[in-house]
Design brief:
- It is a single chain.
- The protein is an alpha/beta fold.
- It is 30% helix and 24% strand.
- A six-stranded mixed beta sheet has the order 1-2-3-4-5-6.
- Helix 3 crosses helix 5.
- The longest helix has 12 residues.
- The chain is elongated and about 65 Å long.
- The mean pLDDT is 96.
- The chain binds fe (ii) ion.
- The site of fe (ii) ion has 6 residues, from loops.
Length: 344
């Protein structure tokens, strides 16, 4: 197991790099844009392939590294379904899992600091973002923060985890690195309250200044989607309305890049082929399943995913692999549903 807790001294943010083995798939939580070079270097040194980059919420104190990591490593960006970000590759909700080879994170919706705040449980440890800090909790006075919701997230979700669960927060301003649920229950001053009203009163009277990066960071973090329009301009994308007319036809092969649990949760376009995004490189090169399918059938390959980001990256990979005229279904299943496209 590879577990790295990385620190951005500018914003006091902790970033976590996880992998089950050297040479395997990796996942990163809360990467900071200014540190992306370091992450890439470390991934190289540990011989890791970054598969997923996850933010616990829309940050106000630093610019996220999600977009840059997606552009440089082709990883999948992941955030909660409530997040106001324009496009991420994958959205998760309470009870989902985020999976890579050998690692599965349980997704826990913990709103309060923001309305899109999530925590992620990995066996003996929990990544609490800005919901629970070591001897503190995240402020609730902006970005749709809500002290009542946070009380519920803390007392009815995080503090219900086993006592010995390790707590890895999104920030620390004093130099602490890790705690446990039992320790926080006993010694976190914000958790020594008898009622939700008492908690709300504490949070309402913090009188904190806004983070110095807030005016820059929030707008930047809300707009990080890959530009899918570029593919449209190149004639390598179709709209969902055009896509709907292809269902049941024989000129195209629709290829679903999503994970199995996304397919189960949101449905599948009838007649489409499943080729999970993590296996894409292998699949599009000569000898690979998609490459052979495209050349044997002579059909156009139309890629789709949840929001159009993975499929846009797949079009590029398919071209590099020698597949002729690959195509992106703009906006993915999300847009497909809005267009009234059939699903099974
Ligand atoms: Fe935050």
């Amino acid at each position: 197991m590879i577990f790295r807790q990385l620190f951005d001294s500018e914003s006091c943010t902790y970033t976590y790099l996880l992998a089950s083995r050297r040479g395997g798939e990796a996942l990163i939580i809360d990467p900071v844009l200014d540190r992306v070079d370091r992450y890439i270097q470390l991934l190289g040194e540990l011989d890791l392939r970054l598969l997923k980059a996850v933010d616990t919420h829309v940050h106000a104190d630093h610019i996220t590294g999600l977009g840059a990591l997606r552009d440089r490593t082709k990883c999948v960006t992941v955030m909660g379904e409530q997040s106001g970000v324009d496009v991420v590759s994958m959205r998760v909700s309470d009870g989902d899992t985020i999976d890579i080879e050998g690692i599965s994170l349980d997704v826990i919706y913990t709103p309060g600091h923001t309305d899109d705040s999530y925590s992620f449980l990995m066996g003996d440890r929990v990544f609490t973002g800005d919901t629970l800090f070591i001897r503190g909790t995240g402020r609730t006075d902006f970005q749709h923060g809500d002290a009542r919701a946070q009380y519920d997230s803390l007392f009815n979700k995080l503090l219900k985890l086993p006592d010995e669960t390790l707590v890895y927060p999104g920030h620390d301003y004093k130099g602490d690195t890790v705690s446990t649920i039992a320790e926080e229950r006993a010694y976190n001053p914000r958790l020594q309250v008898d009622s939700v009203e008492e908690y709300v009163k504490i949070m309402d009277n913090l009188n904190l200044a806004n983070p110095k990066m807030m005016d820059v960071a929030v707008p930047a973090n809300l707009k990080m989607g890959l530009r899918q329009e570029d593919l449209t301009a190149m004639g390598l994308a179709i709209t969902c309305a055009e896509g709907i007319t292809l269902v049941g036809g024989s000129s195209d092969i629709l290829v679903d890049l999503r994970d199995a649990d996304e397919r189960e949760k949101n449905g599948v376009i009838p007649g489409s082929v499943h080729a999970p995004y993590p296996d894409l490189d292998e699949n599009v090169h000569p000898g690979g399943m998609l490459h052979e399918l495209a050349s044997a059938s002579g059909k156009r390959m139309v890629f789709y995913c949840a929001f159009g980001e993975r499929s846009a990256m797949a079009v590029q990979a398919a071209r590099n692999g020698g597949i002729e005229s690959p195509c992106n279904l703009t906006g993915g299943i999300d847009a497909w549903k809005q267009a009234g496209g059939p699903l099974e």
